[in-house]
Each structure stands twice: as structure tokens, then as C-alpha cells.
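Worked example (supplementary).
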Amino acid sequence: MFWEQLLNGLTLGSTYALIALGYTMVYGIIQLINFAHGEIYMFGAFVGLVLVTVFGLNIIVALVGAMIFCMFLGMLIERIAYRPLRGKSSRLSALISAIGVSIFLSTLMVLIRGPNTTRYPEIIKITTYNIGSISISSLQIIILALATLLMVGLQVMIKKTRVGMAMRACSQDLEASYLMGINVNRVISFTFAVGSALAAAGGVMVGVYYNAVWPYMGLMAGLKAFAAAVLGGIGSIPGAMVGGLTLGVLEIFGVAYLSSSYKDAIAFAILILVLIIRPQGIFGQKKIKKV
Amino acid sequence: MAVLKLEGITQEFGGLRALDSVSLEVEAGNIFGIIGPNGAGKTTLFNIITGIYTPTEGNLFFKDEMITNTSAYNIARLGVGRTFQNIRLFGKLSVLDNVKVGSYGITSSSFFSNLLGLPKAKREEKLVTEKSLELLELVGLVEVRHEYADSLAYGDQRRLEIARALALEPSLLLLDEPAAGMNSSEKLELMELINGIKEQFDLTILLVEHDMNLVMNICDLIAVLDYGKKIAEGNPVEVKSDEKVIMSYLGVEI
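After joint prediction of all chains, the assembly is encoded as:
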């Protein structure tokens, strides 16, 4: 029972982690909580659905397609809703703009598809394997493997490539990066692209796993991933991964050992506790402001 | 030839006039010093030259090209490197990576070929690393290349900033108080370093500094700012004996 729940928790948590990464990367560079991020995840889930049902594509191809679509969606949002405000107005205006984009995207989807839940077709034949007393489904294996692959890929990109180094430089001092000849706008654009692609992957996985997508699915998932990012330390990439997994596991344990009605309360109780006890999160660093 | 030309630069912040129609010409190959009391507008001037601020009035030219409205990263790519008064290294990048970041502005391989690790990008990456190591050798930091930049001693951080600025292969180098916080032997080394890199890289240098000994020793020309206005300009001897400068800044020796 325990191990099986842990496995369920890790599966759910890995999707939270994929979404949380987008929050944390964007925050790390421009200190903006991109509240439209949950809606990008929702769009990812729907694009994946359409590619599977309408175009009859293989689920992996659909996943890649959804990631590419959301890459451009993320860059477009940054270009239209955030860049014009950058440097000219307060961070609060960008935040309000983000909330506006979030509402726009979810209502746009209601307009296109209606407010009801759509079921994902059964695209993967689910077989269940029993290892000792633990049963694990092929779907869980696929989700865990894909999420791991994406997160390892992200780490390699950040640590080894030039654009990764530019991202790290920008997250430490945006203005100095600019003065060192780094095209900061392009780095920011790229950050949105990567974060949105990861969220889209999470969206497709959740759609398949829970067999349902709906236009407002981004709201709760987005808030929980945000809680996960804060738990791990907002701005920290390993933090988002660990925070997402932790949150997923705690949530599933809460449902299993307490009551399923506490499911959503757990994430936010954790958020509040973190903010009280360790506001910088697990991997965050305390900022010392010089006076 | 004038590498840098400022024409009537005025910068206002709200009601505050930080710079008041300042004009300057910096000739190629010179070390040009800018001095003046705190708040005189020296760093503001640097921020205008490097494109952080767009001046309220006036124009500036880099090698005859107007750069008044050019974005900061494009000015950097044209060949203007700078260091900062309050050190602004990328503290959580290694010493070597700090210098490499400086090189990226001038490399030519495309974004995607880098992401995919294509051969051309790999060759260029190797060149960048070699060049960065040479620069670290020059400023004497090659042994600590794998340390985090913020773990270095203060004087070393200042020299790392110079190496990072040189990675852009600038023709104009702006040094904002490079000797701040250094002891006298470090200052001597710094003077040697500045003169050395000027010759080696064929640089024009613009320097803000409070250490009068250093300024008078290495500058060919000096401009004095006070309350955003240029009150004097000339060689060190002329500036030292200028009455207005003595009144507002240097003070009278008794």
C-alpha cells in the first residue's frame, strides 16, 4: 500500500514538477510570477488531445506537437503581454497582465470547446505489472520516464550549452548580462519557450493519466505547481523538481491516509507553512539586502 | 580620430538634472579620466555611453556612428566594454564562465547550432575557452578558474571584471573606479595592468576614479564633472592647477 501510494505520488508529482519548472525559470530571470502558465499547460493538454483524436497521431508525436505549439504560445504571450511592460512599469503591472492573459486563455478555450470535460481516448493499452505486492501500470512507467528524460535534458541544457549559460548569467544580473552583449530579450523568450514546452508535456501526461481535460484545469494545477515552486525555492530549478515531487507525494498520502476531501487543501497548507517557516524554500537562498 | 564623442548630453531624472549638456571627445589610444565629487554624474555618464539610459538631450557617437538610441547589448557588441563601481560579476558562475559569457556577444555561430552542438559551434566554443583562459592568464586568475566568482578576494574580482570586459574584444573600455578598495601595492599592479592591456589590445580607455595619484599618473586627459556640469578639461598638470577644480574637488593643500 505504502509503496504503491508513493509511486502514485511520484507520478502526480512529476507532472507538478514539469509545470513548476516554467514558473521558477521565468521568475529566476525576470522576477515575474507568470500566472498564465497554468493555462499554457491546459492548452498543451487540449492540443495533444486534438492531435490524437482529430489527426489520429501517435501519443508521443502528439506530445511533441503540443510542446512545440505551446513553445510558440509562450513566446507570443511574453512578446505581447509582458515585454511591452518590462522596464517601463512596475512588476505589479506585469503580474496583473499575467492574470489577464490567464483569464483570456481559459475563456478562449471555453469558447472553442465549451466548458465541459472531454475524455482522452484510450490511446495507450494499459497493462499492469506486479512487482511483489506493488502494481505499476505501463502508463505510470511512461510518465515517470518521460518526465525524468525532460528534466535531465533541461539540466544538461542549462549546465552545458551556451544559451544555458546565458540564462544563468541573466538570472544573476540582467543588466550586467545586457552590457556583456547578451541579447537579453532573446534569452527571456527562450526561457518562456522552454518553460511552456515542459508545461505542455505535463498537460498531455495528466490528460492521459486522469483521462480528462477541461478549460479550467490550468487554474488548480497552476496554483499547485506554483506552491511546488515556492516549496522548492522559487528561482531554483532543482527546487522546482524536488518541490513538485514532494507535493505530489504528500498530496497522495493525504488522500490515502486522511481523506480525499483534503486533496487540494494539502497543497495550500504546505504553501502557507513554507511561507511561515522557510520563506526562501528548500533550495532558495536568503537574499541579504544591503542598506 | 575620436573614438567617442558626446554632444551636449543632458540627463534628467524627474526634476533632478544629473548631467547638464556635457560634451566630450575621446581620442583613439588615450586614457581619458573623469573625476569629480560623489554625485557629480560620473556613473550616469557611463550608463549613458553603454546604453542603459537614453539621454534626455544630446547625442553620442562611437567611431562616427550615432549610438544615442542603440540598445545596450548592441553597443557592447560594437566594442564598448565596461566594469562596474559596485562589482557585478555573475557570482554563481565560475571564474572561467564569467569570461566566456563576455565572449558570447561577439561569436558568430547561430543559436540553434549551439543548442544542437553542431561542429562549427563546437569549434567556436573551443576557441572561446582558449581565449578566455588567455585573458585569465593576463590578469593572473587562471589558477582559480573553476572557483565561483563571488568566492574571490575583492581585488581579484575587480581584475576578473576587466578580463570579462576584454572578452568582448572592445576598442573602448570603460573602467568605473577600478582601484576602489585596493591597497597601494594592488593599485600599482592595476596601473601596470591598465597600461599593459591598452598597448596589447590597442584600447582607448575611459576611467572614473577617485584615487588622484592613479588618475594623474596614467591619464592623458582628464575631464572634471561637478553637479552634472563639465567644469574643466585638460592634461593632468592643467587640471591640477585649475582654480575651479581645486575649489570644488581637489581642495587646497596647506
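Two points are worth noting when inspecting this output. Residues 2-93+154-250 of chain B form a domain with the Rossmann fold fold (CATH 3.40.50.300). The first helix of chain B runs from residue 42 to 49.
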